[in-house]
Amino acid sequence: MRNILKDYKIFNIDPAKLRSKDFFKNMLEYRDGVFKQFKHTIKRPDQFKCHLCGSKNGKEFLSYKNYKLFECKKCNLVSPNIDLAKLGGHEVYDDPAYIKDAVREIVDTYDYRKNTYAPERLNYILEKTKLPKSRIKLLDVGCGPGYFVDHLKDKKIKCKGLELADFLVKICRSRGLNVENADLKNEPSKTYNVITLFDVLEHLANPVQFFKMLGDKLTKGGYVLAYTPHIHSVAFHLMGGLQNTLLPFQHFAFYDPGSLDYLARKTGFKVHSIDYYGLDIMDYLYMKEYEEPLGYHQKLKNLIPIMQAVIDKQKLSNHIRVFFKKT
Asked: Are 274 and 124 in contact (CB under 8 A)?
């Protein structure tokens, strides 16, 4: 038989190990609690202001209940119409419900993520940057429970993690990892040649200021690698506001190539590469299993990675990987 998939990257996705059994149900329950706590931050449509470029010219893109996202007509960023000042500092992440949700969905799958995601991420960095392992000095910003830093430590790669959530820092330190609850601005200038932002870019309320700070911490020609949700995807097309990466009151920005290029040009970077790899089929089937408990993941386990590879190839998957290079 002809190898019709030779040019496709197929990931070995195991839904049962990546998500908890009641992932979608738990996600909706968590959302309900967050809405009760932060619904007062939602602004009127005429009060919209883009988090990236500051433009007030936007059109409604998607809504979940009365939580609306607008697409900026100037830079293409899609962002929620909420008052960040009223949202407060890190209240969402310090909330007991968030901690419980994070522990269940991330910490409980630690070993699987470390043994599958972390090696693939390192190989991706080596492939794209052409840096030898011995020359890498990496800062993982928003390192979470630290499974990537843990893998780098095993490989004897120079690295450090920064994480704002105290409970995650404690987990990292319990594993002997070089992780601190520290501000990026306190890191020494021109120190790192790779900075990673895995599921961080969408949380930045002021991405321009943050990226200028990243540029200061990088050596000449250094790289920033960001993994971030892609709202112009099959998953959002099928699920709308029920897509789990919408994450109300936490995800402030959804990018496309246009908005990524805008961010790079404003902060002393250029977009080095963009790739698309997601979990659209898996996420959609979790929603279907919540509606009808028919074991979709088990029945379609051979189909999921192949169909996802096709979606990735068409640049329609629900996550983007972007390398920025310091100019």
From this structure: no
